[in-house]
Specification:
Mean pLDDT: 77
Number of strands: 0
Distance between the termini: 43 Å
Number of domains: 2
Largest sheet: none
Shape: elongated
Length: 82
């Protein structure tokens, strides 16, 4: 049981790593990009209309997105500390 779970986890990790490699991204960039794409799709579909973001937060997220994904995790962590 434990061994099959380990191999399943390894298989999933390899698929994620290979997907990031094909797109010439890091795994963090892949996750961030996928979350952003999903958010924008849901926003366009009208599923996210209940979620209103302050202008400050919207500007902050735009800075994170346009500044590249290199420091995005660090910036999000700093935002959560505030």
């Amino acid at each position: 049981m434990k061994t099959s779970l380990k191999y399943t986890i390894i298989k999933i990790r390899q698929k994620i790593s290979f997907s990031a490699f094909k797109r010439k991204m890091t795994i963090l960039e892949l996750f961030s990009d996928t979350i952003l794409k999903t958010f924008r799709i849901l926003q366009k579909a009208g599923c996210m209309t209940f979620w209103k973001i302050d202008d400050y937060m919207n500007d902050f997220f735009e800075k994170i997105i346009t500044g590249g994904m290199v420091n995005s995790l660090k910036n999000i962590t700093l935002m959560n500390q505030a």
